[in-house]
Amino acid sequence: MNDWVQDQWLLEWPNVWAAQEWIVPAGVIGTVLFTLILWAYQSIQAPLIVKLACAAAKTLAVLLLATLLVEPMRSETKPVPGANLFVVLADHSQSLQVVDPGQSETRADLLKQQLDRAAPWQVRLGQEFDVRRYQFADQLSPVSDYEEYLADGRATGMISALDSIADRFEGRPIAGVLLLTDGNATDITELAIDWSKYPPIFPVQIGADEPAADVQVRRVSASQTNFEASPVTVTADIAATGMVGESIAIELLDEQGEVLETQTVSQPAEGQSFTARFQIKPGERGVLFYQVRAYAQSQAGLFEDASKSNEATLLNNSRTVMVNRGHGPYKVLYVSGRPNWEFKFLNRSLAEDDEVELHGLIRIAKKEPRFQFREKDSNANRIFTNTDDEGKEQVEQYDEPVLLRVGKLEPGELSGGFPKSADELFPYHAIILDDLEADFFTQQQKSLIQEFVSLRGGGLLMLGGGESFVQGQYLRSPVGEVLPVYLNSVSPRTGASEFSLALTREGMLEPWVRVRTTQEQEQQRLAAMPGLRVLNEVGALKPGASELLSVVSATGETRPGLVTQRFGKGRTAAFLVGDLWRWKLHPSSHDNDDFERTWRQTVRWLIADVPQRVRVEAIAKKDDPNHPLHLSVQVNDESYQPLDNADVAIEISTPAEDVLKLKAEPQDAVSGQYGSSYVSRTDGMYRATIIANNPDGSEIDRVETGWVADPAAEEFANLAPNVELMRQIAEGSGGEVVRLNRLDSFVSTLSDREIPISQPMVRSVWHTWGVFLLAIGLLSIEWGVRRWKGLA
């Protein structure tokens, strides 16, 4: 029995007996007739099965007619025609441009056929309800019909569309919402939604449950490491379904569409993700974009000719990622108590890195005591004894150290020696102290170094020269407080005079400490290094500090070699070895650049994550179908304290090469925080330049950022309909999930559901043609069997 007959039979089942006074007479009549039928068939000579069949048919017919004497009636409620609202809500996002297995048309084409107003389900729905038609993608819009239906929406804002419908018809008699969608909402949040506050929702599943043939780039990310020249690693997660036995090709392209590298994965597991990694060294600075695309190797050329593809869609075969290489150049201040090999090799190592500027202050003569005899009429340091009188006025005085300034310095930069104020020191990103006693600095400068790390967020590295750490009298100084090791309770070293380096477990986990690819190669490198002889003895490690390198003597005694720690907003490191330069002079380093890489990676770690005066963060609002991008800008003053009353302008370059200008407004919640939102209406790559000015109009800094508007990535993240979400919506709101090919039968049941405005209706079963047809049919069966068997 089909669904329509079942529905009709249930509709006619009586629930009211109008002539209850006829119950007894009807029972008597039925009993008498039943008795007569039994007596009559008992006397007939025929097989028992035949007599039972005929007696049962006639008995049922007689009982049915006797029941009609009691006037059975059907009492029910029906919706008042046109008094109740019913919403038809159709999804027109681009995710419906998918061809399911065994289909020649897209999901959108199949849906459009059902959206024809002449369709039987739409005609019947219009007869009983006030039908309101809407379509949604990234926003909700009313329509009179769906003649112009086109699945071209950039996003599936299903949740926001349902919220708008619930708000728009709040307090009005709405019987339900027919939601035609694949259920793959792009504005779903992690928060649980209370669906009971919505009207009954009846999701109509669009699309087959079987997975379609498809190659999908699910996610692409880019990361910059602290390795030399800061190479960029692009990681892509890819999945292939319906591609059994196929090899998948993955390509990395630059912004101009040139293929930089191609990788091939042979016969990946069905439906499971696999990862492709590309490591590149961009030749440019600033905001860069890279694209990863994947395809079945047997279908090469499908991006130029789509007819070569048998995939469900090509809109999820590629994704673009942004890389921001515009933070540099980074400035590192190296301060040493004497000329040494360490600075020579450090300077040479960083010369190849165009993102790091090394400025050096090298002391070549100490200041003289005040009681030292001096030349008549001259206060110059004795190192300038033979300098002419005019030149003596421009050199260090007798009670000042003589400093050699090295690096690409601006005019007047570091002319007064080590910086004495935050304005001079805070433009640097890291400080390296080597073989320099604490008394070289004034008390104010020591406190300034501590603030440089804790407040500025800079990096501090102290190297193990002869006048560093304990020997440099840093105990109970602000600089000593910053270091990751205690400078008291020092135990003297015993045993052999030479020692070697060894990576600790924590050191093996830090990429910037390693140079070689594998652990075995790293151990071979350390074993080939020459013996080191200068080690600064210190006390225990401070809480939270990490020992990354140990020094091991010939007797097996171990001491800390490299120790790091977070301090305030910055980071500090203590490299307790004082003669690492021996490594470069050793023959083992002549055929490789391990020594240079070590220095570059160490400095890269030191300057990593150091805050800029102007920082920008682009945050996409995932709960909004339009996915507006919020640009959050943090502006600091010269002391790196939040700066209010700044003027922040944003210039956005769109994929169409238009330039839009926005103004970032102060945010109430955070001091020094400014923000502005932007909706990317065009798919593609965006660049933004943030210009921050002081209240007096002078420019603080300008920084760049970028993002990719790629709604197709989320739209086609899952090609199968999200049946689970549709079930949650239906169960929570009091509706049910409907198949697209069952719309006619579903609409026929709406009048029997709970409707806001309805009217009572009473129908007599006596006037139902099915009852008389059943009675006549039973009597005809009984008569036919008797004639067939020749019974009287």
TrEMBL record:
Pfam families: GATase1_like. The keyword Transmembrane helix applies. Keywords: Membrane, Transmembrane, Transmembrane helix. SUPFAM superfamilies: Class I glutamine amidotransferase-like (SSF52317). Signal peptide: none annotated. It comes from the Bacteria. The chain crosses the membrane at residues 22-41, 48-70, 766-785. Residues 416-607 form the Putative glutamine amidotransferase domain. This is Putative glutamine amidotransferase domain-containing protein. It comes from Blastopirellula marina.
